[in-house]
C-alpha cells in the first residue's frame, strides 16, 4: 500500500512570488521567511516523495462567488499556473496523478463526502508558491500532484471539524491505494491575517503559535472553534488555517515536529512553516 511520508504546511502570500522573481530572498525583510526552507529541502531529499497531495484554497480563479464548492478534487492530467500577476515567475505546468486523484475521489464518496471533481483545473498562488518554495531550483516538477481545494472564500465555510474529518478521510484513501508510492501531504494558507475592513493588518502571534503547537500535541484543538470564532482569532483570511488542519489530519496517529519557522510580518501576514512526520 502507499505510504504517507509526512506533511509540510506553509503560508502562500502572493508577494512571495514577487520576492522570488526579483531575487529578494536575502533582503532583510524577506530573509527570515526564506531562511526557514533549507531544512525542508534537506528533509524532502531524504524522504523522496513520489506524489504530493495539496490542500489549498482557490482565490476566484476556478470558482467565484456564484459557484463555490465546499471541497473540490483535481483529476486533471496537468494543472497550469494562472496567477493574478503578483510577480511569480513563469512556471511549467504541474503534472497530475490521475490514478491517485480518482482513487481519493471514489474513497471520499464511499466515506460520505461529496467533492466536486475537476478534470480541468487552473491553479493560483495558493498552490504554485508552496511548490516553488519546496522545490525552488527545478526545471520540471519532481512529483505529480493532486490538488484538494477547500472553500475559504464564500460563506458558509466548512467547519474546522469537517476539514479535520476530510483530512482523515484522505489519509484512509491514500493508505488503501494499492501501490508502493510515497505520498507527501501539503497544507497551504494563513496563518493569521486580515487584508480588508476595520481590522486590516490584524495578526495574532499568540494564537498562531498555539495552533502550530497543537498540531503536534493536540491536533483537534482548533476544532473546538466555530468559523466565526476562528475569524475573530485569526482575521478574515487567517481562516486558511483550515488547510493546515486537514493536512495534519492526513497524518495518521502521533506526529513529531521535524522543523518549523514563524515570522511576522510577510506582507501583512503571519508566515508559518512546519514539517511533520508520523511517529511509528
Please describe what this structure looks like.
By secondary structure, the chain is of the alpha/beta class. It has a single domain (3-278), classed as Protocatechuate 4,5-dioxygenase, Chain B (3-Layer(aba) Sandwich), CATH 3.40.830.10. Helices cover 32% and strands 21% of the residues. The chain has helices spanning 15-21, 31-34, 38-47, 98-110, 125-134, 160-175, 205-217, 227-234, 241-249, and strands at residues 3-10, 51-56, 71-74, 78-81, 94-95, 116-118, 122-123, 145-150, 182-188, 255-263, 271-278. The protein has an eight-stranded mixed sheet with strand order 6-3-8-2-9-1-11-10, sandwiched between helices. The protein has a three-stranded mixed sheet with strand order 5-4-7. Helix 4 packs across helix 6 (160-175) and helix 6 runs parallel beside helix 9. The longest helix is centred in the middle third of the chain and has 16 residues, at 160-175. It is globular.
